[in-house]
Specification:
There is one protein chain. The chain is α/β, with parallel strands linked by helices. Strand 2, helix 3 and strand 3 form a beta-alpha-beta unit.
Length: 133
């Protein structure tokens, strides 16, 4: 079942609140956002950083919902959570990918929509999800 959980965002909000819009806070907060992302990806088999209006994100979320419905999946909608742009910036620093969706499976970044569908079409996504930890 796919759930939408802005995990770690309450912690981040308490740390930065509106100050995250100031340049000094952005520099200091990058490491904290990266830590929150690491917490997110460690807490669920699949984490998708998404935006509600993005058609590629919708395709990726639909793939997991239809083909892997029993896989624990966390979706973080960056356009709905506070500091979504700063989270996306931290994701880009971590992965080199500036776009969404940003898909993480079992703690590893697998890419965006095209990468995810490519792995699925090759049967590799199923293998990754079925592999024991």
């Amino acid at each position: 079942q796919t759930t939408i959980q802005p995990t770690g965002m309450t912690f981040l909000k308490s740390l930065f609140g509106k100050a995250a819009n100031k340049p000094a806070a952005r520099q200091q907060s990058s490491a904290a956002f990266m830590e929150a992302i690491k917490t997110d990806i460690a807490s669920s088999e699949v984490v998708i950083y998404s935006k509600t209006y993005c058609p590629y994100c919708t395709k990726t979320k639909s793939l997991f919902a239809s083909k892997f419905p029993s896989t624990p999946t966390t979706v973080v909608e960056l356009d709905k959570v506070e500091n979504g742009l700063l989270i996306q910036k931290a994701l880009a620093e971590m992965t080199g990918q500036r776009t969404v969706p940003s898909v993480w499976v079992k703690g590893d970044h697998i890419g965006g929509n095209d990468d995810t569908h490519h792995l699925f079409n090759q049967g590799k996504l199923s293998q990754i999800l079925e592999a024991s930890e």
